[in-house]
Amino acid sequence: MSVTAYQQAQQEGQSVVRAVILDAAKSLLIAEGPAALTVRRISGEVGCSTKVIYTLFGGKDGLGQALWVEGFVQFERRLLEVPHDDDALAHLGAGIAAYREYALEEPDYYRVMFQGVLSGYVLDETARKAARRPFRMLVSGVQRCLDEGRLQGGAAVEIADMLWMAMHGAVSLEISGFFDRAEAERRYRLLWTSVLHPFLAP
């Protein structure tokens, strides 16, 4: 008798069960849209009872919010893994590269987070705080560059906003298949360095 994903996850603990359910929900959402995100459908995909999903997530709305939060939690974790660099500008660049790397590693979560596939869901303040934390990390990185004299002539939030706009546009095009990876990597670097160029200290 074959073992379901849920049964396998049960042996490893609740956090693994939660991750398996979120992965199934994410795949259904991207493949078929929000209408597919039903407790019954996901329980069938995973091989668990609907009660398990209600217990962990409180139902469909809680599951949708959990997807949003999980994407940002993983994103934040990826940014925190960027090694510290004594050169503030080099550290900022490494974080900008990690943004793209996360999107390529987790394109489905990136679409959940930034491309509106969860339209119609009302997210609470906990979810919105999770979404704001990575952007505050970008602002902090820019502020460090300003404080250390590597950048000048603009406010940290303003520069961070422009960087994020450029990064998001480039990454969204890449994961939609408009550029091959090698070409996209070169142009991504050219784009964000061009955004910073007017603010570089002499």
Helix content: over 70%
Spans where pLDDT lies below 50 across 5 or more residues? none
Strand runs, count? 0
The CATH C-level name of the largest domain is Mainly Alpha
Query: What would you say the CATH architecture of the largest domain is?
Result: Orthogonal Bundle
- CATH superfamily of the largest domain, by name, is Tetracycline Repressor, domain 2
Q: What integer value in Å does the Rg equal?
A: 19 Å
What does this structure look like?
Helix content is 73%, strand content 0%. With 202 residues, the chain is mainly α. It folds into two domains: 1-58, Arc Repressor Mutant, subunit A (Orthogonal Bundle), CATH 1.10.10; 67-199, Tetracycline Repressor, domain 2. α2 packs across α3. The longest helix has 23 residues, at 125-147.
Entry keywords:
Arc Repressor Mutant, subunit A, mainly alpha, Tetracycline Repressor, domain 2, 2 domains, elongated, 202 residues
Map the helices and strands.
Elements: H1 5-10, H2 14-32, H3 39-46, H4 50-57, H5 60-80, H6 88-105, H7 107-114, H8 125-147, H9 156-175, H10 181-196
Helix pairs in contact: 2-3, 2-7, 3-4, 5-7, 5-8, 6-7, 6-8, 6-9, 8-9, 9-10
A few lines on this structure:
This protein is mainly α and 202 residues long. Helix content is 73%, strand content 0%. The protein has helices at residues 5-10, 14-32, 39-46, 50-57, 60-80, 88-105, 107-114, 125-147, 156-175, 181-196.
